[in-house]
Design the sequence.
């Protein structure tokens, strides 16, 4: 399990996912994102999945859940980098 890049820019958090995530790593990333939102009180969250080859059903559901939890914390989420192949 590696370290994740979570950047704070102004009132936003940017999370570029640069590696394929196994289920456990994805859950750890979700936890780290939510802790960073709580710590910084960010108003926006950008999750970039452009480097991820396949967003499977588990990762897709987890990203949706992360966005819902962030919304409950007052943070709007934008998912970028999805591509149709």
Sequence:
């Amino acid at each position: 399990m590696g370290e994740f890049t979570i950047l704070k820019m102004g009132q936003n958090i940017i999370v570029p996912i640069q590696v394929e995530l196994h289920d456990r790593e994805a859950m750890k990333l979700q936890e780290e994102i939510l802790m960073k939102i709580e710590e910084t009180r960010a108003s926006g969250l950008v999750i970039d999945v452009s480097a991820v080859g396949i967003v499977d059903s588990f990762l897709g559901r987890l990203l949706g859940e992360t966005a819902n939890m962030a919304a409950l914390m007052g943070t709007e989420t934008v998912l970028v980098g999805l591509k149709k192949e």
